[in-house]
Design goal:
about 210 residues, seven-stranded antiparallel beta sheet, 3 helices
C-alpha cells in the first residue's frame, strides 16, 4: 500500500514541475519587462542596433518631454561618474541591477550604450575602411573565437581588429584566447564595427586592421 502511495506522489510531482517552471519563467520575464541581460548565457543579438537617422526627429520628441524628466538622466549619469571616478568623456551603462557597467545588449535586442551622435569626434576617420572591409560575415550565424592579441590588436580567422581607445575599459575581462565574437556594422559611424562578446554579453567599437 505504501509503495502505491509513493508512486502516486511521484507522479503528481512530475506533472506539476513543468507547470511551475513555466510559471516561474513567465514571472521572471514580466519582472524584467523584456529587458533582461543575456550576459553569460551565450545570447547573441539577431541584428545590430538601428541607425540614428531620425536624430532630428528624436530631438523634437525630447523637447516634448517634461523638463524634470529630461534632467533626470544627466543627474543619474553624474552620480555614476562620481561613484566610479570617471571623467566627463566616460559614462555609466549599468541601467539595471545586475547588468554590467559596459555597453551591453538586452534579450529584447536593445543595444544599451549605442547613443553616440553621428558627428562625435571620437569616431571621425580621415580614411574610413583604410584597410578594407570585413567580409567574413555578420550576425548570429557567424560566431568567431579570438585567437590571440590584446585590446590594441586581436585576431580571428586571419582578420585583425583594434578596439577603440575610448572603449578600452570595457574589455578588461575579455579573454583574448577564446572568447566568442560576433561582428555587426556600426550604422552611424563609417569605418567602425561593433564586436559583441557572447560570453560577457558586452560589445565595443572596433576598427578592421586587415
Amino acid at each position: 500500500m505504501l509503495k502505491w502511495a509513493g508512486l502516486g506522489l511521484a507522479f503528481v510531482l512530475a506533472l506539476s514541475a513543468p507547470a511551475y517552471s513555466q510559471g516561474r519563467g513567465r514571472d521572471e520575464g514580466q519582472r524584467g519587462n523584456g529587458r533582461s541581460w543575456g550576459g553569460g548565457g551565450g545570447y547573441i543579438p539577431p541584428q545590430g542596433p538601428p541607425a540614428h537617422a531620425q536624430d532630428q526627429q528624436r530631438g523634437q520628441e525630447q523637447q516634448r518631454v517634461p523638463q524634470q524628466q529630461q534632467q533626470r538622466v544627466p543627474q543619474q549619469q553624474q552620480r555614476v561618474q562620481e561613484q566610479h571616478g570617471r571623467n566627463e568623456d566616460q559614462r555609466g551603462f549599468r541601467d539595471m541591477q545586475g547588468h554590467p557597467d559596459a555597453p551591453h545588449v538586452h534579450n529584447n535586442g536593445e543595444w544599451v550604450g549605442h547613443e553616440y551622435r553621428r558627428d562625435d569626434d571620437r569616431f571621425r576617420m580621415e580614411r574610413p575602411f583604410e584597410h578594407g572591409r570585413f567580409t567574413l560575415g555578420f550576425g548570429p550565424s557567424h560566431v568567431f573565437h579570438i585567437e590571440g592579441g590584446n585590446r590594441e590588436r586581436f585576431w580571428f580567422n586571419g582578420a585583425y581588429f583594434g578596439v577603440a581607445p575610448f572603449d578600452f575599459p570595457y574589455v578588461a575581462d575579455w579573454n583574448w584566447y577564446g572568447d566568442p565574437i560576433v561582428n555587426y556594422d556600426d550604422p552611424d559611424h563609417p569605418g567602425w564595427y561593433l564586436a559583441y562578446n557572447a560570453r560577457t554579453g558586452t560589445y565595443v567599437h572596433v576598427q578592421f586592421l586587415g
